[in-house]
Amino acid sequence: MRIVDIREKTVSIASPIANAYIDFSKMTCSVVAVITDVIRDGKPVIGYGFNSNGRYGQGALMRDRFIDRVLEADPASLVDEANDNLDPFAIWKALMSNEKPGGHGERSVAVGTIDMAVWDAVAKIAGKPLYRLLAERYRDGQADDKVWVYAAGGYYYPGKGNEKLQDEMRSYLDRGYDVVKMKIGATSLDEDLRRIEAVLEVVGDGRRLAVDANGRFDLKTAIAYARALKPYDLFWYEEAGDPLDYALQAELAEHYDGPMATGENLFSHQDARNLLRHGGMRPDRDYLQFDCALSYGLVEYMKTLEVMEELGWSSRRVVPHGGHQMSLNIAAGLKLGGNESYPDVFQPFGGFADGIAVENGFVALPDIPGVGFEAKSKLYALMRELGEG
Ligand SMILES: O=C([O-])CC(=O)C(=O)O
Ligand SMILES: [Mg+2]
C-alpha cells in the first residue's frame, strides 16, 4: 500500500466581500489530491483536501518541499500495519521532517491541507465516514449524529445597505440556522451598532447573533465595542484584537462578561496553549475556533485537544473556523461543540453535503466513506478534475 502521487492546484475563491481587515478580491485556495494504489470499487482511492479560506493557496510550499517528503519516504514507513491502512501520523512526521520548532504560519496551512487529504484517503480505505472512524479509534465509538452549526456571513459588500444585510440573515434562518454571524470593525462603532440593530430586528434576540472583528481593534477600541455590545447579550464577540495579542484578550475579559471567541488564526498546539495560558479565556463561556486546515491538520488538532484537556477545557468549547466538511467530521467524531458554516460565501467550498438540510441549527453528515466531498457535487467536480484528470 502506498501513496503514488500528490497533486495540488490553486483555485480562486475571489469575491467582492470584505471583513474588517481584508477584502477577498484576490483570495485563493489550494486543493490537494492524494492518490493511492489501493483499489476500492474498481478505482484507486484518492483522498482530497483544501485549505479552508482566508490564508491563500499554499501550492508553492507544497511543491518546494512537502509533497516530495512523502513521495520520497519509504512507503512501508507510512503504513499502519494494525489497521491495514495508511498511517496519518507517520505521514505527518514525514511532512514535518527537517522543520524547526516555531516558524508556524503558512507552513501549517500547506501541511494541514495535505493532512486533510490523507485522512480522507484513510477513511475511504477503511470504507467508513471519517467521523465514524474517528469516534471508533479515539473516542468511545459513538459519533454525534448531528452537529450544531451557525451561519457565517454578514460581510461588508460594496453598495450593501442594511436591508440587504437583513435579507441575507433572514435567508439563513429560512434555511434552518438558529444563530448567525456578521462582521464588525470596518466602519465606525455607531455605524456598526446600526448594522447590528438591523440584524437583531430579523433574528429577534442577541443570543442568536455573533459578531466578528477579525482582529482589527486595539485595546481601547476593543473595550469601546465591548461596552457598546454588552446590552445586546450577543452569542459571542469574536477576534476583537490581534490573534497573538493575548494580553489584549485577557484585559478585554475584564470589560466583557459575555462569551468571546478566538483562535482561527492560531497555527499550532503551542499557539493554542499560549492562548489558554495567557489570553484570559474562560472555559465556562468562551469559544475556541482553531481550524485544522490552517493549523497542521488533524494530527496536530489531536495535540491541541490534549492541551485543552490538560488546561481544563471541554472539547465542547471548540467551534472551528472554516465552515468545511473536515471540521464537521472532527466535530461529530471527536465531540466538539459545533462548526462554522458558510451557506453562501466561499462557494463551492462553503456549506456541507447536498440534500442534507440544516434543521433547528443542526446538520447531519452523509453516510459515505471519507470526509464526504463526493456528496457535495460542485466541490467534488473540482476535486475530481485534479485527482482523476
Ligand atoms: O472573514 C474571514 O476571514 C472569515 C472569518 O473570520 C470567520 O469565518 O470567522
Ligand atoms: Mg472569524
From TrEMBL:
Domain Mandelate racemase/muconate lactonizing enzyme C-terminal: 162-259
Top-level taxon in the UniProt lineage: Bacteria
Stated name of the protein: Mandelate racemase/muconate lactonizing enzyme family protein
Native species: Vreelandella malpeensis
Gene3D superfamilies: Enolase-like C-terminal domain, Enolase-like, N-terminal domain
